[in-house]
Amino acid sequence: MDYRHLGNSGLKVSEITYGNWLTHGSQVENDVAAQCVRAALDAGITTFDTADAYANGAAEQVLGDSLKSERRESLEIFTKVYWPVGPKGVNDVGLSRKHIMEGINNSLKRLQMDYVDLYQAHRYDVETPLEETIAAFADVVRAGKALYIGVSEWSAEQLREGQKLAREAGFSIVSNQPQYSALWRVIEEKVVPTSRELGISQIVWSPMAQGVLSGKYEPGKDAPAGSRATDSKGGQDTIARFMDEQTLTAVQKLRPIAEGAGLKMSTLAIAWVLQNDNVAAALVGASRPEQVAENVKAAGVKLDAATMSAIDDALSGVVESDASKTVSPEKRPA
Q1: What angle do CA 179, 194, 180 make, to 5 degrees?
Q2: For residues 271 and 282, what is the distance between their CA atoms, to the nearest angstrom?
Q3: Which residue, 75, 162, 250, 262, is the most exposed by fewest CB within 10 angstroms?
Q4: How many CB atoms lie within 10 A of CB 169?
Q5: Strand, helix or coil at 184?
Q6: Cβ atoms 48, 77 nearer than 8 A
Q7: Cα gap 75→18, rounded to integer Å
Q8: 283 touches 49 (CB < 8 A)
Q9: What are φ and ψ of residue 283, in 5° steps?
Q10: Closest CA to 152 of 105, 193, 200
Q11: Residue ranges of the domains in the chain?
Q12: Residue 298 DSSP label
């Protein structure tokens, strides 16, 4: 495993980070989830990402149960606040002081921990003054309940204003968690250059484009049984944007490129995002322990210029690069 600094901070994280969105507490049984966490630890992963909204708290609980016997100081634990949780009342959502303070306390109870290493704004909240949000995060840090603060899917402009207020409040935003893959490059034009300037790293989710870049979805064929594309509980919706025939055909052109590099297509996809020096970590999930072992093989892989160019050529015409697609909800979700 290789490790990278998170933003301009002194904190190092494993460049392959284990995330439990769409798996723990919902898609896989708790004992299998625990096996996946064990596999991550055995592979050298020390950084784990979750959120209060994942399975409405159950994902945090499963992660906490799986890690409670581990030395806390040897782990980096990330969670998030914003999306509706609990009974989903009017204040069970967003980035108000009330929800942030209640959110961190509830997350720590579920995780069975005294603090998290990184507490993240899961989206930008248009209904709360940014000054209120930043002041609440500052108080969370001063209380020792979170060591660092990050955000997720914030635009370049939101990052700039948030960092300005954060520094005035005595801390820094160290990370942003956007979607990023060889197919979804919307952060490259504005978010990445702004983040470099501000000392913010990317912790990227869906580096395999919801599994499409693994090559298992072939044009003209039904999705494999049990795959994310057949999951009506949520996976089906998130993967839909990548399931058109043109994209699936282009992705199959990556197969000989991966073979030429001595990698599986999934490993190539994860390694691709790690070539960006503003990326601190690639988030990977798993529904089986062996998937973890395979994903970790991307750690430390260096892709040469010819391979990177061949990937660009293969995906020409199907890559999404529109910077305006880095957006948060226009109003709080119910």
Answers
A1: 15
A2: 9
A3: 262
A4: 18
A5: strand
A6: yes
A7: 11
A8: yes
A9: -80, 130
A10: 200
A11: 3-325
A12: G
Helix, strand, coil distribution of the chain in percent, nearest 5:
45, 15, 40
The catalytic site residues sit at 54
Per-residue tens of pLDDT for the chain, all 334 residues: 999 999 999 999 999 999 987 655 455 677 888 899 999 999 999 999 999 999 999 999 999 999 999 999 999 999 999 999 999 999 999 999 999 999 999 999 999 999 999 999 999 999 999 999 999 999 999 999 999 999 999 999 999 999 999 999 999 999 999 999 999 999 999 999 999 999 999 999 999 999 999 998 888 776 666 566 556 565 666 788 898 999 999 999 999 999 999 999 999 999 999 999 999 999 998 888 888 988 999 999 999 999 999 999 999 999 999 999 999 999 999 9
Per the CB < 8 A criterion, the answer to whether 43 and 298 are in contact is: no
Half-sphere exposure of 191 toward its Cβ, with a 13 Å CA cutoff?
30
Query: Residue 85 in contact with residue 103, Cβ under 8 Å?
Result: yes
**Both structure tokens of 127:** 């209904």
Q: 3-325, what's its fold?
A: TIM Barrel (3.20.20)
Using CA atoms, how far residue 228 sits from 19, 210, 224, 234, in Å, is 16, 8, 9, 8
Count the neighbouring beta carbons within 10 Å of the beta carbon of residue 200: 28
